[in-house]
Amino acid sequence: MNTHASPAAGAQADGEWQPVAFDTGTAYGRKPPSHKRELTEVGAGTPMGELLRRYWHPIGLAADAGDTPRRVRVLGEDLILFRDQTGRPGLVHPRCAHRGASLYYGRVEEGGIRCCYHGWLFDVQGHCVDQPCEPDNGARSRGRVRQPWYPVEELYGMVWAYLGPAEKKPVLPRYECLEQLDAGEFIEANDQSIGGGGPQIVPCNWLQHYENVADPFHVPVLHGSFSGMQFVAQMGLMPQVSFESTDTGVLITSIRKLEDGNTFRRVTGAMLPTLRVVPNPRVAAYGRVESIGWVLPIDDHSFRIYTAGRVRRPGELASVRSRLNGRLWEELDEAEHRAFPGDYEAQVSQGAITAHSEEHLASSDRGIVMLRRLLRRQIDGLAQGLDPAGVSFDPAAAPVHFDAGNFLLRE
User: Fold this and answer.
1) Could you tell me how many helices (H) and strands (E) the chain has, helices first?
2) Residue 11 covered by a domain
3) Is 21 helix (H, G, I), strand (E, B) or coil?
4) 300 and 234, same domain (yes or no)
5) Are 362 and 317 in a shared domain?
6) Are residues 278 and 399 both part of a single domain?
7) In this model, does residue 228 exceed pLDDT 90?
């Protein structure tokens, strides 16, 4: 009798068929993959969702807040952005507190946004200020009704929202590199997901992109040789890399020796909560970082990037998006996407949320490991009642300084 199990053999356990695992190198019998839920999922009540809700996030350009209600989705929440006729931006829950009609179909007025169903009017902080179908316009009862809302502020050409507990609301931070402008410079904001390598909304988990900032070794491979020279020649050189963990992020220093004997030193940062502190990869200038990007998790399966930068001409920031011979991602056909992949293809192809259980991290992934540990420390600290790193409650706090930038050390 043959006592050796065939590759298709299995065993009964508790009435269910259990495949026998063999070290044959095939995919048969693999366990279902899993992801790090505590780091990736951003809905209310999740560890990462609660951490991110303790920070301010850009949710639109200043022009997006207007007299036409605009749908926005942030950290898994559907909201309505508008600007009343006195110029104040507002962010409210879409379902009217009266009977549930969506305020997306509302009308923006001087006092706020009015529901299309029975005309209840809510100001930018959710107070009900008019009920036209009630006696005395609801003067006796409307004070007991409040539309769910979130605080918003404007800075650097963008609208920012705080979605966390009111008693823990920090000040909206300012950034030194965007505050100290040289002659002729001005701040330009962009919502086209600069650095994402693809469309405005990227269909995968935010962490897949955020971790990419702490991965300098993909630059000479993906952007420097595999898909042709997507940036400039010096970025295609394999660098000597060092990683530094700080209280608020991970700094990555890449050193490249140039043919002329000079040294190209590039410092990037993945900073809390979702910041991309990445110097221009086309190395248009040396010195302090020119722009900052904020990775906004729309939900668990999509994100977008808002960017603010110092420029000298309108549209200068958007020019960084070009992919292949000056053409944009959306201008390439499928064959070109396959032959010349970029960050979008490399990250989205991992799946809506990458299977962390299938990873085999190596020494070049040190920055990613450090970033994950930083996020876990913040989650653990929040659970212990601590405030996250990088938040300030001091309105007079100095602008945040970053050491990032492209630097040329001459021989």
Assistant:
1) 8, 22
2) no
3) coil
4) yes
5) yes
6) yes
7) no
pLDDT of residue 1: 42
What's 97's domain CATH number?
2.102.10.10
| Rounded CA separation 227/36 (Å) | 30
The mean of the pLDDT values for the chain is 92
Res 11 pLDDT > 80: no
Q: Residues 139-146: what's their mean pLDDT? A: 91
Find the domain containing 262 and state its range: 170-409
Measured CA angle at 404 (ends 399, 406), to 5 deg: 135
Angle in degrees, CA 250, 222, 401, rounded to 5? 25
The structure tokens 């590039």 sit at: 266
Say if CB 69 and CB 59 are below 8 A apart.
no
| Distance, C-alpha 262 to centroid of its chain | 35
Whether residues 192 and 140 share a domain: the answer is no
Question: Please, which pLDDT band fits residue 131 given cuts at 50, 70 and 90?
Answer: very high
What average pLDDT does range 180-201 have in this prediction?
95
204 sits in the region (left: phi over 0; alpha: psi -120 to 50; else beta) called beta
Both 382 and 276 in a single domain?
yes
Average pLDDT on 279-300 reads: 91
Judged on CB neighbours under 10 Å (0-12, 13-18, 19+), 233 is exposed
Give the per-residue pLDDT at 238. 94
Task: Return the closest-CA partner of residue 294 out of 175, 377, 152.
Answer: 175
CB–CB of 163/59 below 8 Å?
Answer: no
Contact present, 304 and 193 (Cβ < 8 Å)? yes
Q: 51 — phi, psi (to 5°)?
A: -65, -50
- The verdict on 148 and 283 lying in the same domain is no
Note whether 343 and 203 are same-domain residues: yes
In a domain, 112, yes or no: yes
- Alpha-carbon distance of 205 to 351, in angstroms, equals 8
Q: What is the pTM of this model?
A: 0.91
Q: Please choose, from the candidates 383, 303, 378, 374, the residue with its C-alpha nearest in 3D space to the C-alpha of residue 75.
A: 303
Model confidence at 69, pLDDT cuts 50, 70, 90, reads: very high
Gap between the Cα atoms of 41 and 207, Å rounded: 9
Q: What are phi and psi of 128, to 5 degrees?
A: -80, 120
* Total of domains in the chain: 2
Kindly state the tokens that stand for 250.
Answer: 């991970």
Domain end residue (candidates: 154, 185, 215) = 154
Q: What are phi and psi of 265, to 5 degrees?
A: -110, 125
Whole-number pLDDT of residue 280: 87
pLDDT, position 173: 98
Is residue 27 in a domain? Answer: no
Of 12-16, 52-56, 102-106, 279-283, the range with the lowest mean pLDDT is: 12-16
